[in-house]
Specification:
Elements (H helix, E strand, L loop, with lengths): L9 H17 L7 H23 L4 H28 L4 H35 L1
């Protein structure tokens, strides 16, 4: 996906990412070694979007911030499993690299959201 085609709608991006993780994992030959890796990657990679959807329906600012923080943690875990698979499956490097890039962007986006919220919370406390 080139920069001009990239959407900034995080609901769509996280949903597309989850779909791409699932499709990627379906293409991995299953065996006793890859099965747990596939399971972990699917769980973490699909959890990002699920938690983002929960954040959008949050009942409070604190709840929203917590769900976004969970999104960031799930992205970190997804990156970990992608790295393990990349090291053990060099033939899948191109596909893994694409997923890694999107996960890295999510990490920066969710990190920025949490950081901005922390800054605003600090300013609110100082104003009191």
């Amino acid at each position: 996906m080139n920069e001009s085609e990239k959407t900034y709608n995080l609901e769509k991006r996280t949903s597309d990412f989850a779909k791409n993780v699932v499709l990627f994992c379906r293409g991995i030959k299953q065996n006793p070694v890859t099965n747990p890796l596939i399971n972990q990657l699917v769980r973490a990679g699909t959890s990002i979007g699920a938690n983002y959807m929960e954040a959008n329906g949050a009942s409070s600012r604190k709840d929203f911030k917590n769900k976004i923080h969970i999104c960031k943690k799930e992205v970190q875990e997804t990156r970990y499993w992608l790295k393990i698979l990349q090291d053990s499956m060099p033939e899948k490097e191109t596909q893994i690299e694409e997923l890694w890039k999107e996960a890295q962007e999510f990490s920066m986006i969710f990190g920025k959201i949490v950081g901005t919220m922390n800054d605003k919370d600090s300013k609110i406390k100082l104003a009191r």
